[in-house]
Amino acid sequence: GHNPTRQKGAAYKAIVQSGAPSLNSGDVIMKNFVRQSPGVYPPLWAAIAAPLTGWISPQPIFMVATVLNPLLLVGLICLAWRAARPAIALRTWLAFGILAMFPTLIGSIALHQNQPQILVSFLIVLALERSRSGDKITAGTAMAQTASIKLYPFLFIIVWLARRDWVTVKWFSLTGALL
Fold first, then answer.
1. CA 160/CA 136 separation, integer angstroms
2. CB neighbour class for 46 (10 Å; exposed up to 12, middle 13-18, buried from 19)
3. What is this structure's pTM?
4. In degrees to the nearest 10, what's the CA dihedral of 27, 30, 32, 37?
5. Residues 106-139: tens digit of each pLDDT
6. Which helix (H) or strand (E) holds 15?
């Protein structure tokens, strides 16, 4: 039968045995979190990733994430600058963004643990920046991709519905349906 506790325990064991940098056998807080927290990722990615586990170990994925995540954070800061259109130069905004993000617990822990939240945050800021710039297709597509990774970005559709931004809603819906 279906036993979520057993599945979460097995998932934790698999992650620990994989050598993931974010978890180790002494990490009691994370162990309890994995056991007690509900699944927050849509099943789409579990279904896609499951067959790959026999072909590739998690280590190459972690190595790619280790390189990609800092770049995504820098990209996120640059996109936020484009969306905010501040009166300061990009290099100044970027310097402040890096100083605010990388040394903080939020930024450093996310980087250390290669959290998918970094990609989610990048895609959310990309979608919002593209929406503000009038690129409704990219905005809707990016937000749908984001909602396929984490469920809560789906709530951003409320903003586009309230604005009667039907093109963005359409592309969000089409992309989401295709995923």
1. 10
2. exposed
3. 0.72
4. -170
5. 688 888 888 888 999 999 999 999 999 999 999 9
6. helix 4-18
